[in-house]
Amino acid sequence: MKHSILSKGLFAAAAIAVTATGFSASASAQNRTITSVAVSYSDLDLTSTEGQETLDGRIKGAVRKVCGGYDSKSLRDMADHGGCVKEAKLSAKRAKVSLIARAEAGTLGNGAMVVGGR
Fold first, then answer.
1. Would you give the distance in Å from CA 56 to the centre of its chain?
2. Bridge partners of 116?
3. Beta bridge partners of 112
4. How many CB atoms are located within 10 Å of the residue 62 CB?
5. Going by DSSP bridges, is the β-strand pair 112-116/36-40 parallel, antiparallel, or unpaired?
6. What is the CA radius of gyration of the chain?
7. What is the C-alpha separation between 75 and 95, in angstroms, rounded?
8. What is the pLDDT along the chain (118 residues), one digit of tens a residue?
9. Residue 36: per-residue pLDDT
């Protein structure tokens, strides 16, 4: 009986700790500003390998601007930065695929794509 009460108490304490950590992380994420950078492609031929490689370089630079640096001593900063980079790269990859398809179809106008992160 005593063992059961102790186990329930430990379980409850662990559940509270996990819940508190989750609220803390989500509150921190909600306070972050979403940033975006425009990446110009109007001077590129996106039907060529060279044009696509140049766009990749511009996207890489935009991701660095959007996500910035991080404190390598802080696990939270490292995780937030990793999430930002992942999100920004995924967003840019989707946009790039669409731009190349439009360029190959001859329907791409001049402009810029937006790379965003959190």
1. 16
2. 36
3. 40
4. 22
5. antiparallel
6. 22
7. 30
8. 544 444 444 344 434 443 333 433 444 444 456 588 899 999 999 999 999 999 999 999 999 999 999 899 999 999 999 999 999 999 999 999 999 999 999 998 888 888 887 6
9. 87
Q: Which amino acid is at 73?
A: K
Q: Give the contacts of 47 (CB within 8 A, at least 6 positions apart).
A: 100, 103, 104
Q: How many residues does the chain have?
A: 118
* Residue with token string 């005593």: 2
Residues 6+ apart with CB under 8 A from 58: 39, 40, 41
Residue 110: predicted pLDDT? 83
Return d(Cα 77, Cα 61) in angstroms, integer.
20
- Whose structure tokens read 């959190």? 118
Structure tokens at 13: 């304490």
